[in-house]
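Appendix B.2, paired examples.
Example (i):
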Amino acid sequence: MRRWLIAALLALTASQTFGSNTTQITFCHDNEDRPPRFYVRDGEWQGRDIDVLDRLFADSPWRYRLDAIPWRRCLQSTQSGKQHQAVLSATYSVARAKHYYFSNSYYSHTPAYLYMASADKKAPEITRPTDLYRYRVCGVAGFNYVGFNLSGKGIDRGAKDLSQLIDKLIAGRCDIALSRSEIIQGLREHGRIPSPAALELRAIPHASLERYYIMVSRNMPNAKQLLRFINHGIERLATPPRDAS
């Protein structure tokens, strides 16, 4: 089921930003829970990504709409700039940069992997990202693993979501499942994924933190103005308030 949220935009007039005929900017996000960034509670989408948009788009007659839809459809829809104009919580790749502008980074996650511990099987020996190539590695369709310092070749991306990815790992169809530490920890805390006692989570040694961005469609009219608006808001959110004294 598609859920959407509407809130107000940051104080800028229509003529100064996206054109006088624009009253709403439509974002999309993966429809899977990603606590603490994005998750359902009491039938409502909540989380830090919602907080960012609410603060970014506050105190103005402007509105935003947020659609939670399958990730691959979100990317395809935003690429044209018609139904959706921007994507939340996206990682960078050269291929994506051909179709989208990237905002300033507004948070980061730790590249990690999952495996099933067993008394009669040695744990994967991972000392650097390239060690992963020695194992059967699985990921999720449409997900970007460039930040893991992997080329993407040899990754089985047959899983449609994280739950299915973990099911494949538990069933022995993968040796390793790629994810991000903070996402798995959040899903575990909220009881949203299979989590048997043997399921182990490890950060990938020597992999850099993976930065996340808001992507704006290059095909959207006035895309660069929207990008400047988003970046200005991200800078404001990152700046501590001055002491009133």
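Example (ii):
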Amino acid sequence: MMKKYIYKLIIFILLSIGFSLPACFAKGRGTTGANFLKIGVGARPLGMGGAFVAVADDANTIWWNPAGVATTKHKEMTLMHNEMGEDIRYQFLAYNQPVGKLRGGLGGSISYLSVSNIQGYSPGGTKTKKLRTYDLGISLCYGLRILPSVSGGINFKFINEKLAHKKDSTYAFDIGGLWKTPLSGLQLGFNIQNLGGGLKFIQERSSLPLNGKLGCAYEFKFFNAQSIVAVDVNIPVDYSVFVNGGVECKIYNLIALRAGFKSKDDLSSGLRLGIGIGGKNLVIDYSWLSRGDFEDSHRVSATLRFGREYEESMIEKDIKEHFERGKKYFYNGQILKAHREFKNILLVSPGHKGARDFMSRIEVSVEEVEVAKDIANFFSLGEKYYKKGDLISARAMFEDIIALNPDHQGAKDYINRIEQRFDEVVDSIFARGVSYYEQANYVKALVEMEKVLALNPNHQEVKEYVTLIENKQRELEKIKLALKKKQEEKRRNRKISTYLKKGLTYYQRKQWTKAIKSFNEVLVLTPDHKVALEHTVICYYEQGLILYGEDKLLEALHTFNNVLRLNPEHEQAQEQILRINEECKEKAEEYNRKGLVEYTRGNLKEAIEAWENALLFNPDLETAQRNLERARKEIKK
């Protein structure tokens, strides 16, 4: 067994040899290009002070350690926005997922740094227009599980940088490794970042900011809160060695509190703080960094986990948590609690070997003295529940005892007494329900009967009463609906009577428009109302005659058409419509001739107006239509 772990350690050390590469090529400050590659990503890692190379357990691992992609158990996406101050913004998007056929996982990321409102200057020092610069990084990552506890990864990068009017691109890659040590919760990791070419803008080529990271992370329980302590050592090519450290503490798997530091920070004390809020699928993270005389830096990121693999991993995680709790209870002598945990596991995963083994051991252990003491404690608790009148909780405790020791006579006696008490309570509640039923208070009666069924689901007489109550409630509902319908009918008839009376009054006064409005209100409520229909027809006809007498031909035509809409056989309205149509044609001819006169005088607008009027009176007058089209074309020239 020891040889196996030594073998894994040797592999991990060989992978870590490359960690010394940055020191081999060490340069001074300010000698590298594409320095946006130094900016850490993810509000969660940054809230931990940037100590993440050995944690590497979410989509941010693409940047921090590509080997972490090999251990991913589900599809995951993260998006970060970083307000760095001074019009500098940094965005990062990453996605990874497990790929079983490749014995690991794949991922990709996009990072974008933009700086706006940079004042430009000419060679002579004169101000020019505002300039804008950006840095773009696109990466593809592959992580491989070399051994069950050792994984490696490589991250290929395309880098593009624009400075004012100059652009250049290059390629680079990162190499990382992770080792889950035999010590539970301890993990080691390394990452060599930005191996590759450089960028050239004018004459000299600037190398990339090569950096080596080596870190360790320890995961443990702190007052039942899942916690991580992590430390990273960085050896950059253009800077002295510095250390990042951080902690994370998850409370109820809903809130994560984070804090961290950076040993060498020219702009601040090095303190970082962060918080994460969310559930299993979505987490929102925030981190804060003080930057001395500059604006504070704020990072916000959102991480989304999804897919079938994620759901399965959550089930596996829940099973693992129940199993660990069950083991803890078992070895602490809390046999009943352990029994419940392993029982819950077997309900979800009946073939779980560990849970089945412990259940077998529990069945044997119930005969031991320690278990007897534990049962005695639960027996005492059951008695307390019984004395308080909490019969349901008391019965649950005694039934759990019998599940472990079927011959426990004391638990059996209490269960018999509880059943008798239940019968008394059931009879009392049932009598109260019957009383409510006889008083026709069916709502309260149903509530009481449902209480009885909660205690005794097989109570046949109660079931019969429930059926009777439901039938009575349906009958009452029908009566209520009938009364409601009758009331609505009365209200409708009152409205009809009111509108009809008003309409007849207006009719007698020959106020045709108001009369029509009132009669139409009647017809909305009852479309076949004979009196309203007859009087509406008369009102429309009389109104049409008035309009015709005022030479309002089109309005009169519309009004007589309303007469025919209500009474298609109305001969007088038909005659009026024929007469008006003839007069409309004559009017149209007059307007057409007027248009020709204005057209010959060169008055195109007046001609167009005349022909438009002609078509209002006779839309089928082709000569007016042609003349209008010709005039409109000419007026556009």
